[in-house]
Amino acid sequence: MPTISLRYFRFFYGYLGNGVWLTLVASMFMAVLDGIGLTMFLPLMQAMDGDTSGGAAAGAGEGMGNMAFLLEAIAATGLGVNLVNLLLIMLGFFVLKGVAKFASEYYRVILRQRFANKMRLNNMRLLARYDYAAFMGADSGRIQNSFSAEVNRVTMAYQHYFVMLQYAIMLLVYAGLASLANPKFALMVGAAGLLSNFAFSKIYKATKTASTKLTEEMHAFQGFLIQSIASFKYLKATGLINKYKDKVEDSIITVEGFQRKTGTLSAIANALREPIIMLIVVVAILVQVLVFGERLGLMILSLLFLYRGLGSLVGAQNAYNMFLSQSGSIDNIEAFGKELTADQEVVGSQPYRGMTAGISLKKLRYTYGEGTVVENLSFDIPHKHTIGIVGASGTGKTTLVNILCGLLKVDRGMLTINGTDANDLDTVAYRAKIGYVTQEAQIFSDTIYNNVSFWDPLTDEVKNRVHAALKLAHADGFVNDLNQGADTVVGINGINLSGGQRQRISIARELYREVDLLILDEATSALDSQSEKLIQENIESLAGRYTILVIAHRLSTIRKADEILFLHPGGKYETGTFSSLMASSPAFKEMVALQSFGNIE
Question: Per residue in 170-183, pLDDT tens?
Answer without folding.
Answer: 888 777 777 776 77
